Amino acid sequence: MRITVHPGVDLDVTPGHRLGDLRPELARVTCRPELASAPLVVDGVPLGEDHRVGTRPLLPGATLHAGQQGPPGRTHPTARTQAASASPAPAPEVAALRAAWHVAVLSGSGCGGLLPLSPRAPLVLGDGTGPSVVVTAVVPRRPWGARPREADLLPRVVVRVRGRTGARTAGRRRRAPGPRVRWEPPGRRARGALRGPARPWRPGHVLRVGTTTYDLRPRPHLEEWGVTSGLPAPEGPGPREGLGPSSLALAITPAVGSLALAASMRQPVFALLALVGPLTLVVPLLLARRRRGRSAGALAPVEGRGGSGATAVPPRALPGTERGAPAPGPDAARAPVLGHLLDRARYPQPCPADLMTGAVAAHHAAETSAPAPGVPGGRPRGAGAPPTTPVLGSAPTSAQAPVPVPAPAAQGARLPDGCVAVVGPREPRLAAARALLLAQVASGAEVVAVVPDDLAPCWSWLRWLPGSRRHPSGPLVRERQADRPVRDARVVVVEVPGEDGAPVAGLSAALEDWWARRDGPDRLILVAADGRAVPAWCRTVLDTTAQAWRLADGTVEPAPLVGVGESWAERYARHVAAAHRLGRWPDGTTAEASADRADPAHPGLAESVSLAALLEAPVTPACGPPAAWVGARWDAAGGAPRPGLAVPLGTDAQGGTVHLDLVRDGPHALVSGTTGAGKSELLQSLVLGLALTTSPRDLAITLVDFKGGAGFGRCVHLPHVVGQVTDLEPGLAGRALAGLRAELRRREHVVAEAGARALDDLPAGVLPRLVVVVDEFRALADDLPEFLPGLLRLAAQGRSLGVHLVLATQRPAGAVTADMRANISLRLALRQIDPGDSRDVIDAPHAALIPANRPGRVVLRRGNEPPLAVQGAHAGTLPTTRAARVRPAERWGSVTALAPGPTADPTDVVSLLVDATVEAASRASLPAHAAPWLPALPGRVRPSDLPGRALPGRASRHELPLALSDLPDEQRRGTVVWRPGDGHLAVVGRPRSGRSTALRSVAVAGLDRGWDVHVVAEAADLVEGLRDHPRCGTLVPLHDPRRVARLVDLLLRREGGPPTLVVVDDVEDLRSSLARLPQGAGDGVLGRLLGEGPARGLHVAVAGSSPGLAGLAQRVGPRLVLCSDAVPDDVAHGVPSRFAGRGGRPGRAVWLGPGGPVECQVVVDTFPAPEARAAGDAVPDDAAPDDGAGRGLPLRLLPLPRHAPGAGIPDRPGPPQESDARAGHVVVGLGGDHAGPVHLDVARGALVVGPSGSGRSSALLLLADHARATGRLRAVLSRDDRFERLVRHDGVGTGEAPAGGPAGRRLVTAVGLLPPHEVTAALRSLPQTGLVPGDVVVVDDLDLVAQSSPVEAEVLTELARAGVVLLASASTTAAATAHRGPVAEVRGRQSGLVLAPEERGSGDVFGRSLGTVVDPDGGTPGRAVAVRGGELVPVQVTAPTVVGPPAAAGTIPVPRAGPS
């Protein structure tokens, strides 16, 4: 059964186990160690260690909470109290039904809600868009000292209208339509609001606030409700009967006048006129009394909830009302009734509030042992089936034949034509579809959802409904199976994808096929955007946009808002799951009927039972030699004081083991069952169970098989079998009968010679008991008429001589004689088609009620004891492993769920046990022959060797296969699948053990499933063939920590997108590489990725050589440990001891995941799908951000080039953020995330810093060349001769303006190794050159200029403040320590280049941390960080290309690192 562990982990737990035994598995599966010792609470009730799973309150759908952890080893009562107090509040509907009064939302916003009403918490009703209603439960005054009772709460309604709208018409104000209820403030704070008396809300009257309808209800008796129950609609306020004010005034006025006239006139006769007024009231009173008399015996009004189709139900139709009984009062008219009695409209009208009340009642109501008043058969009121339905718990009579009982219908479950379409906006149509669907669920129908994969999460709440499933598309016609239950009904809900309303071709064809071939009980609910996708045969349509029903006859009826939310639907489904476990859903079975131990359809009966599990047989090699176990069982059975022939038959509805003893319950047995019921398997289990329990010294078996001789399988090789008779050897049956007679005579002589009366009085080992098993004795009787009477004589004499008969047949009618019934008291009936055949065997029709899909289900009857339903044990079924008791629940709706692998051959277990019996009988010390198991794992596994479920087209998108697993306990091969939801993947192993191969398998699986994959690795074989895939993102080596840190930062910033896989190889080296980033920028990068990644859809597969994974071991989930041939090394890496030392070849590993340790072999030779690679061949790194499927391409961070030539950089290339080369922006090189052109804004000045020899003069020359090209260059001061090419060679020190510059403007130059006084003179001449804002002054080594001429250098400061653009270079240390002067002034522009940023102090220049944009290795000439305000961009600075004067045009060769 499925439960939830808080906060949201769904688990499948096997019922019947102690909660204390499941604690370790709960902690391991959920990865929450506290569950192993913390108190566990369900619905506020603490659970003890001995609590059984599947009993209240731990039922399907329950949420298990872990309370505060107490002392280990014991649960203190205080800890239980604290755990209960710390648990969350119960569900709102449960709290509402526990309150004295509650408000039910019948329609509108919050439809289906049940709101508790408490005197300490006023309830505000309304949706916030209109009037709001405050409901207050007022406790009436009681005498002093008397405590108020909860039942005395008198609800009162207080209304506050938050806003009015309207317009004046003809001098009057026309108010907007709405409820006109007078209100009073709920407190003194609203004293200034409109005042009025509080209006009492009488039960039975509805309250409408805007479009929402509310009903006030008292606490219901949950025992009166069933899942199909409903309430009649509340009666609206009618006309007041009796004497009104006008009638009283009409009667009093004449009386007062006549008395006054008699007093004034002194005439007493006038006083008689006072009687005229009272006489006028007699007629109205008589008429009112007559109306009340008629209504008492007439119909009780029951309004249709849709506003049309109003009808009535007679009072005697209500449960508990009989003919001639007094008329029911108001409470009786509001008692729960069957839903179909209220369903009188022409279209479905579900009432979610009643559905929820019925579900909670089925979940929480106490079981009643005595019949309810007025309810035949003891069924709760409103609980479904008619009173004439026979109950299995009662003794059946000959007149009661088991007839199919149709599933009762809840209100709103009747669908016209069997189908209804819901159209409109997505949320309203889904809400309405949920309400319609849950009405079908309440009627017992199973749900089949046909929704595409992208819409399946909206229907995930269906996972709690028993039997619900999902299909993606395709045929909807139910396969006609003979084993389908008689009362099985199905509702198919289909959601048409898309909001355009266009029909889907494949889905439309499937719907048409369904309509043409559907079964009778099948129903359809179609959900679409508009009516274009609705087939023509679906004539009833609910339009949520217009809030109207379009009916088959063309009429349109208003539709109330009865849609429910997804959370409401999930809570309802959880209640239904619990009710199903209790046998209260579907509503054809009551709690009393479900408690009947003879019911073969009891939900507590297991689907299959393993004989080896009941015997605790060691059927796996890890459990020890089975022969020794068999010998021990024989010794224990022989040492019993009164040995018998006990064998486990199966399990009952309570999970207990049912034993059958031929000595005490027999001595003879009769077995009957139709074809396919499991009769031969049951006989095989009986024979094998007897052989495993009793030694050949005490038991001999004779097999008579008239079904071809193969019915007993390997059991014929048991050492107990002394003879076999088949129909293949003519005449053998006669000789066998003669031999049995001789054996009977011999036994008589042995007993007589020993002076004993029976075989039990003889010493052990003198005579073994003889069991004669006859399969298909009817065929034997037809072929050998004398054989069966001879067996019956043996049966009459064989009890005292230790001879036992086990007779089996398919058709008992006519074959079971009176003599057989007299001598055979132990009877077992498997499934029978005719109830008469069932009565021939067990004197009851129960065998005819066994479901056809439950082979091995048997009804046992011992003598005169009542029948007992048992799920028979199957000898060929492997026992369920311990780890399977708690397992993660499968994702609902996973139509691509993993297909089951090859199951074990049923004869394997039988062969193992038979061989063990043979070995034990021969008293050999060696173990039995090896059990059938699969050969060893191959040394090389390719993707084609994996089971078919691992192929990309069949596997789930969230399951990544990486290895072939060996499952010897299940005798099959499997696929090791990493589910990222279980945590990040860790691959641990020594070098050359296959770590990179395992990571490549995961990466290829992610690419094939549409994931974005990023790889951080050095191994070339890991990334081979992945780079060209369109979903492959960044491939970064380990020695590039800057890009690794940048990749993690960008991935953690993203919102949404496809699942992303980050593959990290050699995590220890990567962490060391990240530690080299300056200023600790690499600290915590991997921790952030592993910790914050899952919330962003990031999943990491990390590989390392040490178990600690560089300190990240606690942040990963499943592990793939690559084994070696050294046991200590494997144990140190976390390999369990039983798997340690089995490696030695690359790829041999042990998977440590949620399902326990599994040995596996990693897949090799993995490549992405061919079509994906072909599509990716033509995708460049700078392609448009779309992969052709409507999704953006994954993030690709490219490395910086080692050299950026001046020529070849386009003017406006690269990504959009780098392509805007506006005025004042200079392309300084290639860099950024995409290695594109990087622009630097020099409009306000720029500073180039770096140590000596870093190339800062070359970078400044690049900026100066841009200023020369714009014609704004006015001064150049540099010791580098390369700056001479920026000006004409017409003099030293000064010159005219170059070509293209304004006439009369001088260009000040000081280029070369000039004396200091010439530099000083050049600085002094700058103010006289007429510089204006926007002119450019280039100063190389500004820090040295300011140091040599501090006074003159202040001219540059003033010019920069005046708007002159100052392009300068300086050393890193001088720029970082400058507090004033021209260096500080130009640094304040926050624009420039930091060359050799790995040098200490580089981040202090502009006050920015450069850790994440710096390559720690450095050493690359021209590597810099572009500072653009608050943005830092790594860049490879381009080599400058300076254009000289026209006479000497050309390119000056520039070295990689020019002089500073």
Would you give an account of this structure?
It holds the Pfam family FtsK_SpoIIIE. Keywords: ATP-binding, Nucleotide-binding. One of its GO terms (molecular function) is ATP binding. InterPro entries: AAA+_ATPase (IPR003593), FtsK/SpoIIIE/SftA (IPR050206), FtsK_dom (IPR002543), P-loop_NTPase (IPR027417). By secondary structure, this protein is of the alpha/beta class. The protein contains 35 helices and 60 strands. Strands 28, 29, 30, 31, 32, 33, 34, 35, 36, 37 and 38 form an eleven-stranded mixed β-sheet that branches. The chain has an eleven-stranded mixed β-sheet with strand order 51-50-60-59-58-52-57-56-53-55-54, with helices on both faces. The chain has a ten-stranded mixed β-sheet with strand order 41-40-49-48-47-42-46-45-43-44. A hairpin with a 2-residue loop joins strand 14 and strand 15. Helix 9 runs parallel beside helix 12. The longest helix is centred in the middle third of the chain and has 22 residues. The chain is flat. The chain starts with a strand and ends in a 23-residue tail after the last strand. The C terminus is likely disordered.
